[in-house]
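Why does residue order matter? Because the sequence determines the fold. Keep that principle in mind as you read this record.
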Amino acid sequence: MKLSKVMALGIFGCAALGFAGHLAGCSSTETTTTPTTTGGQPPAKPTAGATTSTDEITFALNSLSLGDADRAGTASNSAWKGYGFNLDKKATDSKAKDVCTLQPGAGSSVQVDGTNGIDNSFGANILPIVINAAGLSSPSKTVSDSLTKGSFTILMNIKGLSADAKQTNTGLTGQLFAGGAYDAVGMTTPAFDSTTDWPVRPELLNDGKTVASGSKVRFSDAYVVGGTFVNGSASKVTLSLAFGGVSLDLTINQAVITFDHSAPGAATNGTIAGVLDTEELINGLKKVAGRISPSLCSGSTFDGIASQIRGASDIMSDGNNAAGSNCNGISVGLGFTAKQIKNPSKVADLGAASPDPCAAPPGDAGAPTDAGKD
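Structure:
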């Protein structure tokens, strides 16, 4: 099975269940562009005082942009250039030399940046394969439709935001949760308002702690500049998706999350950016490969897919990009919008794991392959 089909099933299958040429050689330049929320660098931490707001609010994503269309929804094969941040602080083209060494056989275009040096190899190099070969003409719409129907979401619980659309403060805190299927609470379609109590996925809870204290993804150094929220110091964010009752963790290193709180109850112009460790991504997919498609139980089939994923590596997994080191990470930039909902009080049912097609039947000495095993 081609990478396109795997990524389509992996991204949209997981979403529906729970909540993912030539060899290089050349020059690059350090960027000097003014930081913005849609390119370059996120707004810097202000010198303003700590927030006095004690409000705790929760936003639920109601749209997610993967890079096939701009924020207005207009399809474009260059839309990915506007999603993400300049993670390595370099503006690179296909002739860059002071960058990490690409995987064997990877084209130099893998390291071409977007607007103001935005790093987004996922949008530039993986998403087009999904679109062109799998016949998914508008993948962002497909994912966003799943969000609005209540199939899954991402929840951002933030303390310290005020109603001031131009708020500038430090001292905000936050945490992320993965939202389970909304119909688990007896409703079919979320209203995305104060009546919406979205159930939280249990794998983000610790030892039976309450929902409010159980997230593994927390922001202790967040701030807001002119109404733009920033999660603070780049951190590791794990988005936990469910596939057939099995959790697939997508860990985004050096993660930066921003959005505009331009009006009460809404988060607009949102961005999630960072780096996926290439081998970690491959190993995570390998664990659920059989549940994506039984054809992936063939070791050679999965190995071919893994090779294509490695070829999209454009950066180092720690967010750096230095000559003499091998590229072992895939930069990613996603856009989102979100609506304020009720602070979560329910825990979703993860569900029983479906049988692994790649596992050997009981009593069988051998399995078809180890592609779908843990």
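Residues 3-17 form the longest helix (15 residues).
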